[in-house]
Specification:
Helices cover about 75% and strands about 0% of the residues. The protein is an all-alpha fold. It has two domains: about 10-65; about 70-173, no CATH class. The mean pLDDT is about 85.
Length: about 170
């Protein structure tokens, strides 16, 4: 929002940083050993997710530099139709990594005209994990696995439709 003239700046990131810093300060004051352990665990987590965040940042930069926003509106915007749902659901199923690392890229796509319902469907469809399907089938049977997968994809579509109804299909942030 900060790019628009007269629009208030979004300070939520700074507020969250302040809350986390205050929580660490309180923890160190109460139990310094626990504070050091928590900080070490945070460092480990950051090392683990840093490469994924870097990839998402690079993809977001490439998206903003080389991709025409009108193309996204055509394929994933208000007029996308069945093709948009298919692309969102398929991308959700085949995507990997933690959901939160996708948030910056998805927010950028929404700014370029991608429908909120398709973003919701993408995130919901991520519940289907292709590498786990054979294991699930071995434990629960092929019928259960197929039915659960179909219901999950159907649920992703329904949640996306609900989001479009509530938020409007042309929602951008």
């Amino acid at each position: 929002m900060s790019g628009k003239k007269g629009a208030p700046k979004n300070r939520s990131g700074w507020i969250m940083l302040g809350i986390v810093a205050a929580a660490y300060a309180v923890l160190f004051a109460v139990d310094a050993d626990a504070g050091r352990k928590a900080l070490a665990k945070s460092r480990e987590t950051l090392k683990m997710i840093a490469p994924v965040i870097l990839i998402v940042l690079v993809l977001t930069a490439l998206l903003g530099t080389w991709v025409n926003p009108r193309k996204f509106s055509k394929h994933l915007g208000e007029e996308s139709g069945v093709k948009g749902w298919f692309l969102a659901l398929t991308a959700g199923i085949v995507s990997h990594g933690s959901s939160y690392v996708w948030y910056p890229l998805l927010a950028d796509l929404m700014k370029h005209g991608v429908r909120a319902g398709l973003v919701v469907a993408f995130l919901y469809a991520r519940a289907v994990k292709i590498p786990w399907l054979p294991l699930m089938a071995s434990y629960f049977g092929l019928g259960f696995t197929v039915l659960l997968t179909l219901y999950t994809v159907l649920g992703a579509w329904v949640q996306g439709m609900i989001a479009d109804r509530i938020l409007g299909s042309g929602t951008g942030t």
